[in-house]
Amino acid sequence: MSLPTTPSFRLDGKRALVAGASSGIGLACAAALGEAGAEVTLAARRTEVLNDLVDEMIAAGMSASALPLDVADVAGTQAAIANDGPFDILLNSAGLARHSPANETKEDDFDAVANLNVKGAYFLTQAVAKGLVAAGKPGSLINISSQMAHVGGLDRAVYCATKHAVEGFTKAMAIEWGKSGIRVNTICPTFILTDLTRSTFEQPDKRSWIEDKIKLGRVGEVEDIMGAVVFLASEASSLVTGTALMIDGGWTAE
To answer: Among 88, 146, 147, 224, who pairs with 14 as Cys (CB 3.0-4.6 Å)?
Structure first.
């Protein structure tokens, strides 16, 4: 009897597009994919920051390039992907949150969050998939969703709505593109400590609420996301599609 061999987690020879790569989770994902051998294109609106990060990744022995991109600009995104693709891997970390009580939601805030989190994510995923289908290639498309795509949260009606929507189109796209070998999944983190979320953690009552809900008793770090990204991008997850990978410390286990 011969023992089975673990599928490779390596991404050598793969091209990865990371949207929202200029900071936080997106930056961590770009580094993870680069460490695993992928040729990483870092995409975001802040071109100067991207160029500095590309230089750092190259200095660390990774393959990286920059692509100015505003995911909320659907036409611009479609053109950029058509010009620079096809990409074997998509990691979309571009997102927006504007929290308020539901009865105080402003239409402008609703539109801004929905345009990026739902419409932008939808058409970015579509654009990468179109490139893969045209090239006859398989691929792994990953959207950073949230634990809030599976539960509700105070002052988060709009954010929850958009992330629930991402889960919905992920399942539908996975069904449609499965026969083309294109997998579509989400990663659903709990509260992750980044520069953008630091102000939340600095409020004792909110930090206490978060730590009480996370069964492992600690807040998330960007490093908690990195292994999951490599798993979903690689052949190690070749039968995983249409699903959500929870990285929530047990928040949604209740």
So the answer is: 88
Question: Does the active-site annotation cover 159?
Answer: yes
Q: Is-contact 15 87, C-beta < 8 A?
A: yes
Query: Can you name the CATH fold of 15-192+221-249?
Result: Rossmann fold (3.40.50)
Structure tokens at 31: 């580094």
Query: Per-residue pLDDT tens for 18-65?
Result: 999 999 999 999 999 999 999 999 999 988 899 999 999 999 999 999
Distance of CA 38 to the CA centre of its chain: 16
Other C-beta atoms lying within 10 Å of the C-beta of residue 189? 22
**Full-prediction pTM beyond 0.90?**
yes
Q: Which two tokens stand for residue 199?
A: 């102000």
Q: Where are the domains of the chain?
A: 15-192+221-249
Q: Which of 87, 123, 159, 191 is catalytic?
A: 159
Contact 90, 33 (CB under 8 A): no
15-19 and 89-92 beta bridge pairing: parallel
Among residues 191, 115, 199, 112, the alpha carbon closest in space to that of 153 is found at 191
Distance of CA 199 to the CA centre of its chain: 22
